[in-house]
Amino acid sequence: MQQVVIATKNKGKAKDFEALFTPLGFEVVTMFEVAPDMEIKETGTTFEENAILKAETLSSALGKLVIADDSGLAVDALGGEPGVYSARYAGDHDDEANIVKVLEKLEGVPEAKRTARFCCALAIAGPNMETFTVFGTCEGVILTEKRGTNGFGYDPIFYVPELGRAMAELTPEEKGAISHRGNAIRKLAEELPNLLK
Ligand SMILES: O=c1nc[nH]c2c1ncn2[C@H]1C[C@H](O)[C@@H](COP(=O)(O)OP(=O)(O)OP(=O)(O)O)O1
Ligand SMILES: [Mg+2]
C-alpha cells in the first residue's frame, strides 16, 4: 500500500488522518514509526509557519514527501486564544488541563458569545518541490461542560451547530467530513496533481 508520512506525534491527529486517507488507499505513517526520537520545536507565530517547520524538518531528515499539521482552537471571546498555543495553553499537551482553562476563562459568557473555530494548517514538503500550505477551519460554539468521548484535544467542549452534537460525539468519519483537518485535506487533495507533476 502507498504510504503517506505525517510529521506528528499526536495519536488523535493520526486517527483523524487515517479516517481521511485510508479510503483513498494510503497507509498513514507517523513520527512514532519513522522518527520517534526527533523533537521539532514549534517556534513559529502562525499555524502555517509551524506546519512548514515540521514538514520541512522531517522531509529533510527522511528525504521523502511529508505532510505536517499545525492546528488549534481560536475562541472569539478570548481574542483568538489559545490559537497557536493550543497544545501548551495550560500544561504541556495536557488536554484535560487545557479544557479546564478554556471553560474557566469563559465562565459567565453567554452561548451567543461562545463562538469559536478549529484551525488547521497543512504543509507538504518534499525533496523535489516547493513547500505548499493549505488552511482549513470548522466553526462551532464552546460548551459549558464536556460532551462525548471520541476524538482528542478540545473535541469534548466544541459544539458543532450544523450537526447538533459535540465534536467528541462524532465518529472519525463524521468528524472528517466537517472538520478543519478534513477541509484542509480536501483542499490539499485538489492541488496534489499540480504539485507532484
Ligand atoms: O481536531 C481537533 N480536535 C480537538 N483539538 C484539536 C484538534 N486539532 C487540534 N487540536 C488541538 C489539540 C492541541 O492542543 C492543539 C494542536 O497542537 P499541535 O502542535 O498542532 O499538535 P500536537 O503538538 O498535539 O502534535 P504534533 O505537533 O506532533 O502534530 O490543538
Ligand atoms: Mg505540536
TrEMBL record:
- Summarize where substrate binds, as residue positions: T8, K9, N10, K11, G12, K13, S71, F152, G153, Y154, D155, K175, H180, R181
InterPro entries reported in the protein's UniProt record:
dITP/XTP_pyrophosphatase, ITPase-like_fam, RdgB/HAM1
Q: What class of enzyme is it?
A: hydrolase
The family assignment reads: Belongs to the HAM1 NTPase family.
Record's protein name: dITP/XTP pyrophosphatase
Free-text function comment from the UniProt entry: Pyrophosphatase that catalyzes the hydrolysis of nucleoside triphosphates to their monophosphate derivatives, with a high preference for the non-canonical purine nucleotides XTP (xanthosine triphosphate), dITP (deoxyinosine triphosphate) and ITP. Seems to function as a house-cleaning enzyme that removes non-canonical purine nucleotides from the nucleotide pool, thus preventing their incorporation into DNA/RNA and avoiding chromosomal lesions.
On subunit structure and binding partners, the annotation says: Homodimer.
One family from Pfam that matches here is Ham1p_like
Q: Which GO terms describe its biological process?
A: nucleotide metabolic process; purine nucleoside triphosphate catabolic process
Source organism per UniProt: Ureibacillus acetophenoni
Entry keywords, A to Z: Hydrolase, Magnesium, Metal-binding, Nucleotide metabolism, Nucleotide-binding
The positions flagged as active site in the entry are D70 (proton acceptor)
